[in-house]
Amino acid sequence: MAARARGLWRTAGLGLTLLLGACATPAPDAPPPRGAPAPAAQAFVVAANPLATDAGMAVLRRGGSAVDAAIAVQAMLSLVEPQSSGVGGGAFMTYYDGASTKVTVYDGRETAPAGATPDMFLDDGGRALPFATAVLSGRATGVPGAVRMLAEAHRRHGRLAWRELFGDARRTARDGFLVSPRLGRFLASGRFPESSAPDVLAYFARPGGGLLRPGDRLRNPAYAGFLDRLAAQGADALYTGETARRIVARVHQGPLASSMTLADLAAYRPVVREPLCAPYRVLLVCAPPPPASGVGLLELLGLLERTDVARHGADDPRGWYAFAEASRLMYADRDRYVGDPAFVDVPVAGLLAPDYLDRRARLIGERAGPAPRPGVPAGASHRGADRTLEPTGTSHFVVGDSRGNVVSMTTTVESIFGSGRMVDGFFLNNQMTDFSFTPRDADGQAAANAVAAGKRPRSSMTPLILLDRQRRFAGAVGSAGGNAILAYVGKAVVGAVDWGLPMQQALALPNLIARGDSFQGEADKLSPAVRDGLAARGVVVRPGQGEDSGLHGIIVRDGRLDGGFDPRREGKVAIAPR
Fold first, then answer.
1. Where would I find the beta strands (DSSP E) of 90-152?
2. pLDDT score at 389
């Protein structure tokens, strides 16, 4: 069966050429599309928490669009999965229009305040601050972007009124919800600096002492009140007025106060971008461009196409070895070159050029050697070595409506509970710590991801849309997980497309993150034969750290939707009947 499924996806010499920005973006003043339903289109939601999935499906049942449902999902995740994402953070959305078959990227990445400086995470001696110090500081928070981005996507693609999209989240905030096992584990672990933040301790305090446990009811009237204003006032409820004043006041408190101002919040604008689209097997894979890391994911897939990974299944160490070595090459390039394209030239075309991929793939030998050096793609400028410390965090979900429109969205407050600081019932992000703490390397070369005023930090988020050769929707996938996101999403694509696994099994495959000299992941989930085979090739997998993946996705097989959620989380797949 697996061999037959693999055969459905494989191809030889299709002649598909690299497409950069091939999916046109509608004009800024274009009305939301009202095209006829795509044939056999079904509504679906896959998210990391059942309450979020249900909130999205409720909007779809009322005739809402995929973007409408995405807004409801995000509003609920901010409440029930606050350790991962929220209205105080940022997001990337890759959007497929079922009527036009166009793909558009909505960039809601946070921005550095106008007063941010390259040395803001250095101590008086010029040394990088400890991450635990930086993440709890006022300087950790960037100007949040998720809400403005969702408002812009709704302006273009919404069908229901904005005010109608927050009801489930408001009711749940007022009535309360049961703390989930996963949220309870984060509260009990004490592993993360934010676990001891005053706002975290106050919000999750348990009557009688200690922190809430799984099964305890948590109410958030402050968040319910904010959602009332957000529903009535639109995105301005966060970027101006009382909430904006409270955000600025909170980040100005020590230690290491922020320079953020009300003007920074009022000036935030999302960016509508062309996607990066490139062929993989019989599919066209579309991903967000820099400052997101879609170029890294597409480079990884391009390298894998030049290996024999598709000939080896999940039980064969040869396939995992090819995946590990391709990952190391990709990360070396991604870490060196990717940053905000408004501030640095990112050699996107050079990184994805067939001759460059050929040269890089030839570096994959029979045995893993030292950490690979970054390549020199066409258009590359000299860049300093990167010193970004990107923690785990984030959430991913996918939504499709009955008209064939699809949202693939990765959303984050960065680290666990963001900066640990709350305003109006939601956590503020610590996205500024996604910049390189050290702006220059020992040779004086500037890092592509150095801090600058107004700059968007590099992101590992890679929400994908997959199309077939007729540009019909073929799937969507993305993940949480800090810099490991690219490895997680790459693994899912290999599992579902090359190895022919059902989406649920592809997402559940063991995680293997190969970056530099490090091989980390779920060593205990790899079979002894795979572990031994990898070790014989110089790849010794050691247990990883953090919250692991948060993969959620769906793929079209034989005209049917095959959805899956990451078993490491608490997700739910909901697909409307035909």
1. 90-96, 103-108
2. 53
Q: How far apart are CA 49 and CA 53, in angstroms?
A: 6
Half-sphere exposure of 283 (CA within 13 A, CB side): 28
406-440 pLDDT, tens digit each: 999 999 999 899 999 999 999 999 999 999 888 88
Coil, helix or strand for 561? strand
Q: Extract the tokens encoding 26.
A: 């509608």
**Gap between the Cα atoms of 400 and 393, Å rounded:** 24
Distance CA 426, CA 270 (A): 20
CATH superfamily of 2-8+41-273+388-511+548-575: Gamma-glutamyltranspeptidase, small (S) subunit (3.60.20.40)
Q: What is the pLDDT of residue 578?
A: 83
- Tokens coding 15: 């002649």
Q: Which residue has the tokens 């990167």?
A: 386
Q: How far apart are CA 160 and CA 394, in angstroms?
A: 27
Phi and psi angles of residue 195, each rounded to the nearest 5 degrees, phi first: -60, -25
Total Cβ atoms within 10 A of residue 31: 10
pLDDT per residue as tens digits for the range 257-288? 999 999 999 999 999 999 999 999 999 999 99
Phi, psi of 161 (to 5 degrees): -65, 145
394 is catalytic: yes
Radius of gyration of the chain (CA): 22
| The one catalytic residue among 394, 410, 412, 438 | 394
Q: Is 379 exposed, middle or buried (0-12, 13-18, 19+ CB in 10 A)?
A: middle
Say if residue 425 is exposed, middle or buried (CB neighbours under 10 Å; 0-12, 13-18, 19+): buried
Total residues found in the chain within this entry: 578
- Residue 273 bridge partners (DSSP): 105
CA-CA distance, 481 to 566, in Å (whole number)? 12
Q: Tokens standing for 175? A: 């009535």
